[in-house]
Design a protein that fits this description.
mainly alpha, 12 helices
């Protein structure tokens, strides 16, 4: 329970009391991160269902869901994405890039990255039927946090000796990582079941869409992680936030393209 409280308290605004903070608890928290993503996705997906009860533009529902998700996460992952974009976009060596990422302001690379990311997410969600859009967002949120589980595996160092990255780096054991991955894929399949018997007339594509989104989202995040390790030497809190948004966005794009 210490790990679950740490995961929820770190990754969301949900009020929990974190009584113990150390690397062992951090490892459990990162392994349970997809569960926190599930909770965030369920709440954030509610506006996507509004078109079922009241006519309105799908883009508005998508924007409301993404705005709610930003509130529920304190905007931390979006901030990390912007900071990493500024750091990598500067073209500076690792020490200078890390200094840029620590600054509180956002530069042009960060602004453009944020705008494009949110635009892509909104466009992907607005093009999906209400129920499939909600299921896609839940899947994408869980996948985004699954990227944290993989980023905190053994062999991935921290880029700084302090901060969140140092706390969680190399804390997730292989068994926990694969358990979290299988659980996220199972969640995607479970979310597909109502769609296969409900709005969809073609069960096979729906059964493939959400699990494919998990795989695509994780693959995109791992590609970014590899680049960040080469440029910065490891992970930081900003890198982790960027991985969440990258995996979430790639998962939503996959749902939009395959649905």
């Amino acid at each position: 329970m210490d790990g679950l409280r740490f995961a929820i308290g770190t990754l969301s605004v949900f009020p929990v009391r974190v009584s113990r903070v150390d690397r062992e608890v951090a490892g459990r928290a990162m392994a349970l991160a997809p569960l926190a993503g599930l909770a965030l996705g369920v709440v954030a997906a509610v506006p996507l269902l509004l078109p079922l009860v009241s006519p309105g533009p799908p883009l508005l529902a998508a924007a409301l869901s993404l705005g709610l998700l930003a509130v529920l996460t304190r905007g931390l992952h979006l901030d990390g994405l912007a900071d990493l974009a500024d750091g990598l976009g500067s073209g500076k060596p690792a020490p200078q890039a890390l200094d840029i990422m620590k600054k509180s302001d956002i530069g042009p690379f960060g602004v453009v990255t944020l705008v494009l990311t949110l635009l892509i997410q909104a466009a992907a969600l607005s093009g999906l039927p209400a129920w499939l859009g909600a299921a896609s967002l839940v899947t994408a949120c869980s996948t985004g946090r699954l990227a944290l589980t993989w980023a905190c595996r053994a062999g991935v160092p921290a880029a700084r000796p302090d901060g969140l990255g140092a706390m969680v780096a190399a804390t997730v054991r292989p068994a926990a990582r694969w358990t979290a991955t299988l659980a996220t894929l199972a969640l995607a399949l479970v979310l597909s079941l109502p769609l296969m018997t409900g709005i969809s007339q073609s069960p096979l594509p729906v059964a493939v869409v959400l699990p494919s989104a998990v795989v695509a989202g994780l693959a995109a995040a791992m590609a970014l992680l590899g680049h960040a390790r080469r440029r910065l030497g490891g992970i930081t809190g900003d890198v982790l936030g960027a991985l969440v948004e990258t995996a979430t966005t790639a998962a939503l794009i996959t749902c939009a393209l395959l649905a």
